[in-house]
Amino acid sequence: MNTVERVKSILKERKIAVSRLEKDCGFSNGYIGQLRKGSIPDDRLRIIADYLNLSVEYLTTGKEMSMPEFEPEHLELIRLYSKLNKEQKNAIITMMRSLANEI
Prior knowledge:
Layout: H1 3-13, H2 18-25, H3 42-52, H4 56-61, H5 72-81, H6 86-102
């Protein structure tokens, strides 16, 4: 089973429509269906893994499943982050690192 097939299988098990994942993750409508070679770009795979509360490794290999608990706010942050350009993402990461060091 390739990565795209595994993602679709997990979505089916969890009764989540592919279109819902695409919308929640900030992808274009039909994006997952357009992935022809069964692989997903790393940046988008990370977003999908976080959305599904799974590890990237599990999505790519089917092994080492990790199921952290995410609050709705975490999913909202992921959705919003995925819409940013590279410069904006770097600014957010820098700001969050700064805030984390203050704790």
